[in-house]
Amino acid sequence: MTTGSMNAGEILLDCQSAWKIFGTRAPAAMDAVQRRNLGKREVLQEFDCVVGVSDASFQVGRGEIFCIMGLSGSGKSTLIRMLNRLIEPTSGQIKVKGRDIGAMSEPDLRELRAKHMAMVFQSVALLPNRTVLENAAFGLEVRGLPKAERNQTAKAALAKVGLADWMERYPGELSGGMQQRVGLARALTSDPEIILMDEPFSALDPLIRRQLQDEFRQLTKELGKSAIFITHDLDEAIRIGDRIAIMKDGVIIQTGTAEELILNPADDYVAEFVAGISKLHLIKAHSVMIPPAEFQREHPGVGLESLPLTSPDTDIDGLIELMVGHRSAGLAVVEAGQIAGVVTPTSLLLGVKGSQASETGGH
Amino acid sequence: MTFQFSIGTWLAPFVDWLNANLHGLFYVIGRVVEAVLGAFQSLLLYPPAIVVILLVTITVALLTGLRVALLAFLCLGFCWLMNLWPQSMQTIALVFTAVVAAVAIAVPLGIMASRRPRLEAALRPILDIMQTVPPWVYLIPAVILFSLGQVPALLATVVYGVPPMLRLTTLAFRQVPKDLLELGQAIGAPPRIILTRIEFPAALPTLVVGLNQCILLSLAMVVLAGLVGAGGLGAEVTRGLTRMEMGLGLRAGLAIVAIALLFDRVSRSALQRPAGGSRI
Predict the structure, then answer these.
(1) What InterPro entries does the record tag this protein with (chain B) (predicted)?
(2) How many Å lie between the alpha carbon of B189 and the closest alpha carbon of chain A?
(3) What is the pLDDT of residues B165-175, one digit of tens each?
(4) pTM of this prediction?
């Protein structure tokens, strides 16, 4: 497994080797898995148990949006439910803000869920007999806050998601996208550090989905929240996530930024997934440049100083624009005042294809 | 030689034993039930009929709406006009008490059964028996233990009213959407709050159906209970039957229909109102 680069800073959530085995003989199966290294199929045959999640490890930093992408049945919904112990892990440790949630008492766990980790569901799960405002305030109501106070907080959260005019309506009167906004407002009302998003936008139509994705990312970053976002859609994961974990059959195959997944897929499965993704905004200059020496060997007559300059974070889209605009043989990538590399038309084309610039190039 | 198995040879001595040894207990239960019923009946019968009718109508109007209030007024007015006011009040007191008792027994048990499949499996045959054994049959031990009157009638009515309420409670709670339960847990709500603020509202429509079943079966049973001297409209129906007086039987019968309507509509609209009515 390749682990991608971590954002520097405080680690809010630390999932260490979490397992979930479903079935009446789960403990025995877990034991056998650890001792004899049994596979998924053997566990099913021998113990009649299903391995939902196997050996999942990852960390999420403060302010980071971490996407877990997998197709249905890959165990992603099970995994996210282990993070707030809606599903009890069979083995492994999950720490939230340094505290092992597996060791928490029921009241402590309830407090954690009420104050520090909110969840948004694919089905939205709004209470049909309550108004939008009452739904948004439900978490605070459960905590026993006085009505005026909780309504004030809920109103602020609803305003953030653009539903200020809909507070007295009932969920049944709202469109799917608006309902999910209420779900998000309800999660924000308790001002949690971590938001667990369980395929929240999957049931929405593409246009609304896009809009909500952008709004969600903007809002989360603005408020400095961390989010763990489950999706079956790689485009969504790339749009929203700072880092992405790809899951298959209960295993996290690879974790990394979108760029890392595209340029260095851990296996064919990941490669196949990322194959159809447009690289224009994902791959940056530092991944497609070749060393200056190599450029000079190829183009002895062209001086490096004469090349148009660009930064390592310029994406392919920007590079193409520069390259076409200047009709030059290359673009000099300047990092910390020095020319770190050169993007040539060839390396740019390779980047569009999703390959590294050259053996010696890249980072 | 024939083999015969008679439950009666086992049950009869048991009932006799209960009667002989626990007579004091049954006596106390009987007196308590009688006192509650008696107090309720006197409360309904003490003021003039027209006062009761108006009070009920106003209460219903405040609780639900004008339409149901008008219906309540007409139903009670009908009982009064039929010259069956005291009997109707006796029946209302009996049914009301029986339904409250049946709900108090059935709802907690039903909720438990919805969470524990084993308990439900154990309850099912008992409920089947309670519902299918002709009600006359359990009037017999009830009368043996509590003698004639309103007490055996009330107990038999409760026994008859519990199964539908219990079954539908189990169903109602099992039908609560899983995602709402998950929401309750994920939001950090304690079990008590999940029960009262999420499960009850979601289960309410089915619970109302159960309550109506319970009320209607209780009313049917109360009529039968006229046979054991429970008084009320049942006694009038029985009298009509034994004397072959079509008019009396019909009047009492229609009054029962009026009371059934009253209970059904009032309970239905009173319970459904806070749930947001048609806006869901």
Answers:
(1) MetI-like, MetI-like_sf
(2) 6
(3) 999 999 999 99
(4) 0.79
